[in-house]
Design goal:
Helices cover about 40% and strands about 30% of the residues. The chain is of the alpha+beta class. It is built from five helices and eight strands. α1 (about 5-10) crosses α2 (about 20-30) and α2 (about 20-30) runs antiparallel to α4 (about 110-115).
């Protein structure tokens, strides 16, 4: 894929839609094109969060590793951004992501991303708002699950 193609793909994503063309070109140039076969992990829960991935083709699933075993919590396909929390926060990955189908992706390194957006506060604000919206939706889903979960003191006659 040519650099100009990668720039156009990134521009289609809400995170990058309004980014200056030169900065977007620099981000695309600094990104690494990666491929995964079904079953391969893009990253594991507990890994250092050092990059995000733009899924160009294919499908990935997000898995939460729990004491009772892995639990699938979602799927993402083309033009999804995965692991973007790591672009803003230091820390470990909170879940595992693995390829369901053959996946082609752009791996955006945290350091490259930080250099590109250093002079672009609007970009940081858009990313923060998107992550906050996802957190609000996830919290709402958890509240719904808790509301339907029978309590330990409930008895069946």
């Amino acid at each position: 894929m040519l650099l100009c193609d990668e720039v156009q793909l990134l521009r289609k994503l809400p995170y990058f839609a309004e980014m200056d063309g030169c900065k977007l070109k620099l981000l695309a140039f600094a990104s690494e094109r990666v491929s995964y076969e079904p079953g391969q992990k893009l990253f594991r829960q507990g890994d250092s969060g050092d990059s995000a991935y733009v899924i160009l083709t294919g499908v990935v699933e997000t898995i939460l590793e729990t004491p009772s075993g892995p639990m699938k919590i979602g799927e993402n396909g083309e033009m999804s951004v995965i692991g973007e929390v790591s672009l803003l926060c230091d820390g470990e990955r909170t879940n595992t992501v693995k390829a369901v189908t053959h996946v082609d992706a752009l791996r955006i390194n945290k350091d490259s991303f930080s250099r590109v957006i250093h002079d672009c506060p609007d970009m940081t604000l858009r990313l923060t708002r998107t992550l906050a919206e996802r957190l609000r939706n996830a919290t709402s889903e958890l509240d719904t699950v808790k509301a339907y979960k029978p309590s330990a003191t409930t008895t069946v006659n």
